[in-house]
Amino acid sequence: MASISPRKDSDGNLIGYRVQIRRRGHPPQVRTFRQKSEAMIWSRSIEGEMDKGLFVDFSEAERTTLDELLDRYRSDVTPAKRGAAAELSKIAVIKRHPIVRRPVAGITGADLAQYRDDRLREVSPATVNRELTIVSHVFSVAMQEWRIILPRGNPVMAMRRPRTPEGRTRRLGDGEEERILSAASAYERTSKAIRMASIIQLALATGMRRGEISAMRWEFIDFPGRTIHLPDTKNGTARSVPLSKAAVAILQGVVRRNDGWVWGTDMDPHSITRAFDRICARAAINDLRFHDLRHEAVSRLFETTDLSEMEIARITGHKTMAMLSRYTHLRAGHLADRLDGKRRGG
After folding, report:
1. Domain holding 147: CATH number?
2. Do 36 and 69 share a domain, yes or no?
3. DSSP assigned state of 207
4. Which residues are catalytic?
5. Which of 125, 205, 303, 305 is the most buried (most CB within 10 A)?
6. Cα separation of 58 and 288, whole Å?
7. Using an 8 Å Cβ cutoff, are 158 and 254 in contact?
8. How many other C-beta atoms lie within 10 A of the C-beta of residue 209?
9. Is residue 165 part of a domain?
10. Count of CB atoms situated within 10 Å of the CB of 225
C-alpha cells in the first residue's frame, strides 16, 4: 500500500502531501502533491501498473534536466570525438536556450520544434540541424548507456527537422583555374605565405579535404608507389589516396622542411581558407570556396576517367554513393558526349 503523509512548513502550515510507494521488485517511488486527492490518484495509478507488470520507472528522467544531460555528455562523450572542440562550442550554444532547464521526461517533440523555430530566427537551417543532431545523440546515449528511461523515447524523432538548401554546384568556369593559380603565385611572392598554388593544384588533382591537406606529413607519402596515407580523416576512417603523375610532380616541387610537415607546423585548415579567400579576391573570382575544389576534383574524375563509382569513392573517402553524388556535378556537355558513346576523356 502507498503511504501518504502531510507535508508542513516551518510554521506548521500544511503545504502538501508526500506519497511513498514501496513494492518488492520495484524501486521506491516518492512524489509530493499539493492536494491529497491528486496524491491518491497518482498512487492508485502507479500501484495498478505495478500489479499488471506495466510499471516503468521514469523517476530519473523526471529529476534530470537537459542541462545536466548535456554536462554529462560534454564530459563523457565529446572528448573522444575528432571534432570535440567544435562540438563543445555547439553545446555551449544549446545550453543558453531555456529548454535545457526542463526535466528530460517532460520534453516533447513540440518543445524541440519551438527550439528549432527560435534558432532559425538567428542561424541557418544547417546550423540548427547540427545542434539537433547533438541533442538527439544526447538522448540516445542517456537511454542506451545511462539507463535513463524517457516516457516518449527520443523526442527529436517526434519533430520535423528544418530543410536545408540544396548542396552547392559551383564548378570552375573558363579561365578561372588559371586566374586562381596566377593570383596564388603572386600572393606567395608578396606575402611569403604558404604554398597556396601547390595546395590548390593538389586539391584539384586528388579531391582531398582542406584538413587532410593541412595535416600532410612526408612520412606518409610513398613516391614510388604513388600514394599518400591519410591516418586521420573527417569521417574517422583512414585511407590511402592514389597520386596521379601530376600530383606527384606537385609534391616533388615542394621544399622539404625539417619538422616533417609538408606545409609547416603552423598550417591549419583555417589558414588555407583565409589565404584562398584572399587569392580569389585578387583574381576577381566571386562565390568560390576552397571546398568547391573538392567538388571540381570529384566531378573531373567522373568526366575524364573510366573509374567506377566505388573506385572514386575509395579515392575521395565518401562512405556512401548518396554522399558522393552530392559532390558530383557533371557538365551537361560531357553527359551528351557519353550518350554518343564517347569514352571519358576521349
Report:
1. 1.10.150.130
2. no
3. -
4. 209, 234, 291, 294, 318, 327
5. 205
6. 51
7. no
8. 22
9. no
10. 11
CB-CB neighbours of 216 under 10 Å: 22
Whole domain around residue 147: which residue ranges? Answer: 63-158
Instruction: Determine the 3-state secondary structure of 146 from DSSP.
Output: coil
Q: What is the DSSP string of 215-268?
A: T-BGGGEETTTTEEEESS-TTS--EEEE--HHHHHHHHTSPPPTTSBSS-TT--
Instruction: Give the C-alpha separation, 62 to 102, whole Å.
Output: 9
- 3-state class of 161 per DSSP? coil
- Is residue 346 assigned to a domain? no
| Shared-domain flag, residues 238 and 200 | yes
Q: What share of the chain is helix, strand, coil (3-state, %, to 5)?
A: 55, 10, 40
pLDDT tens-digit map of 250-302: 999 888 877 889 887 777 888 899 999 999 999 999 999 999 999 899 888 88
User: Is this structure's pTM higher than 0.85?
Assistant: no
* Pair 211, 183 in one domain: yes
**Total tally of structural domains belonging to the chain:** 3
CA distance 111 to 108: 5
Closest CA to 221 of 263, 267, 181, 185: 263
Nine-digit cell string for 96 = 543558453
Residue keyed to cell 528530460: 104
pLDDT in tens, 128-167: 999 999 999 999 998 889 888 787 789 999 999 988 776 6
Q: Which residues pair with 4 in a beta bridge?
A: 19
